[in-house]
């Protein structure tokens, strides 16, 4: 009985701590929500208080200023194309590394993993030069190519760990039945990768959707490709900062990705833990 009481008390303590931490993580959402409904003057006076008068017009103004439909379309299209390419290329690459563990493949995998520790800021100048030289700047395919390049390392690493858990006997049986090597991957292996595929989709979508620095460098002044993070910066000038409209725009831009994350977030832990069963 004493052990059960101690266990119950410790569990309650952990639950209370978890609730407090959860509320702390929700504080930024509180500030965004309440301040998006205030005037600029009211925000500057007291950003933590509830709005005296709810200003719904902030949302309509922000919608027009940042050209929300265009920015949303660009963010969605860039995210979808980039993530699909990352999933296809990284899964096939990882499958090759696992099933053909040659010295060359081991070296390539090590280089991919090592590249994850290189800070992005240290290669920005080289990235600008290379994208300019290859005429990738200011083009849709240019930003997509950059996202694929930067997303391959982590995605391949995650797929590599998961594919190790796929029984080789299933593939051998498919080969005996006359399935081609490409058919084995797409018809047998790829469907079994669903948990890690969803994990890779979530992680890369969250990164690409919220990314600001790479679009600034690659998209540049091409307003036709402006993403939501770039569009929101229009509300911040050299001398003026329209916090009321910026927070309204930020609240609207959060909704699609938040809904996407909440719909699929349960698969993140499942995919990562499943890939760590075997080393």
UniProtKB/TrEMBL annotation:
Domain ABC transmembrane type-1: 72-264
Cellular compartment(s): Cell membrane
Superkingdom, taxonomy of origin: Bacteria
Pfam family, one: BPD_transp_1
Transmembrane segments: 12-34, 71-95, 107-128, 140-163, 184-209, 245-264
Entry keyword set: Cell membrane, Membrane, Transmembrane, Transmembrane helix, Transport
Main localisation: membrane
Topology in membrane: Multi-pass membrane protein
Assigned protein family: Belongs to the binding-protein-dependent transport system permease family.
PANTHER family per UniProt: ABC TRANSPORTER PERMEASE PROTEIN MG189-RELATED (PTHR43744:SF12), ABC TRANSPORTER PERMEASE PROTEIN MG189-RELATED-RELATED (PTHR43744)
Record protein name field: Melibiose/raffinose/stachyose import permease protein MelC
Source organism (scientific name): Paenibacillus plantiphilus
Gene from which this protein is expressed: melC_4
């Amino acid at each position: 009985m004493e052990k059960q009481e101690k266990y119950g008390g410790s569990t309650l303590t952990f639950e209370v701590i978890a609730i407090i931490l959860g509320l702390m993580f929700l504080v930024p959402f509180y500030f965004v929500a309440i301040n998006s409904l205030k005037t600029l003057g009211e925000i500057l006076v007291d950003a933590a208080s509830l709005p005296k008068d709810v200003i719904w017009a902030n949302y309509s103004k922000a919608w027009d200023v940042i050209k929300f439909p265009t920015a949303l379309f660009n963010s969605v299209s860039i995210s979808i194309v980039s993530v699909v390419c990352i999933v296809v290329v990284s899964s096939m690459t990882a499958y090759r590394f696992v099933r053909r563990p040659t010295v060359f493949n081991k070296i390539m995998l090590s280089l991919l993993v090592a590249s994850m520790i290189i800070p992005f800021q240290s290669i920005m100048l080289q990235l600008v030069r290379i994208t300019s030289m290859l005429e990738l700047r200011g083009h849709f395919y240019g930003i997509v190519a950059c996202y694929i390049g930067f997303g391959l390392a982590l995605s391949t690493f995650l797929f590599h760990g998961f594919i190790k858990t796929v029984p080789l006997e299933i593939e051998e049986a498919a080969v005996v039945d006359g399935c081609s090597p490409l058919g084995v991957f797409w018809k047998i292996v790829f469907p079994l990768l669903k948990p890690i595929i969803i994990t890779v989709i979530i992680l890369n979508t969250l990164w690409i959707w919220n990314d600001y620095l790479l679009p600034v460098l690659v998209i540049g002044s091409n307003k036709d490709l402006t993403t939501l993070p770039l569009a929101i910066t229009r509300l911040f000038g050299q001398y003026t900062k329209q916090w009321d409209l910026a927070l309204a725009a930020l609240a609207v831009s959060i909704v699609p990705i938040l809904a996407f994350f909440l719909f699929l977030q349960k698969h993140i832990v499942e995919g990562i833990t499943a890939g760590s069963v075997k080393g």
